[in-house]
Amino acid sequence: MNIAIASDHGGFKLKEQITDHLIKRGISVMNLGTDSEESVDYPIYGKACAEAVASGAAELGIVVCGSGIGISIAANKVNKIRCGLCTSVEMAHLAKQHNNANMIALGGRITEPELAFKIVDEWLDTEFEGGRHKRRVDMLDNL
Ligand code: RB5
Fold first, then answer.
1. Is 21 labeled as catalytic in the residue annotation?
2. Does the N terminus or the C terminus of the chain have fewer Cβ atoms within 10 A?
């Protein structure tokens, strides 16, 4: 599996920590920046990660900004992207089970690393339920 990951300055530290976590899980990670805590604009990084997923260059994507809000909004502007902002393990579970989220967003100023790793693992390890949820996800993709 390969996962694209990107952040702004507010999510940089957590992005690096999640990257290490993913590598420990044997996942190949495509880093799309940013690469320091110097101030940058989150829409650029949300779009870059979303385009990597939408084009098939990466199977899934993770984006991080200070709150997770701005970069998730940016990612969801890209066609075929379903990016869920996750602040709990339950949200990560539902993001995959019901929404088949192909990206998640986290807040580097909101979520501590240990919880972020649990969120990422729950999202990766949960199966999409399909059925009535597939109809709704198909509707999302056609909006
Ligand atoms: C940057 O200061 C901050 O606004 C950004 O990381 C994010 O929280 C936006 O939603």
1. no
2. C
pLDDT-based confidence at 122, cuts 50/70/90? Answer: very high
User: Among residues 49, 65, 83, 86, which one is catalytic?
Assistant: 65
Find, among 77, 76, 65, the residue nearest to 102 by Cα. 76
Instruction: Give 53-112 pLDDT, tens digit per residue.
Output: 999 999 999 999 999 999 999 999 999 999 999 999 999 999 999 999 999 999 999 999
In whole angstroms, how far apart are CA 66 and each of 11, 41, 63, 72, 98? Answer: 5, 11, 10, 11, 26
Q: Domain ranges for the chain, please list them.
A: 2-141
Give the pLDDT score at 85.
98
Q: Does CATH place domain 2-141 in 3.40.1400.10?
A: yes
Neighbouring-strand partners of residue 46: none
65 catalytic residue (yes or no): yes
Helix (H) or strand (E) holding 6: strand 2-7
Ligand 1 atom index nearest CA of 69: 10
On whether the CB atoms of residues 102 and 75 are closer than 8 A, the answer is: no
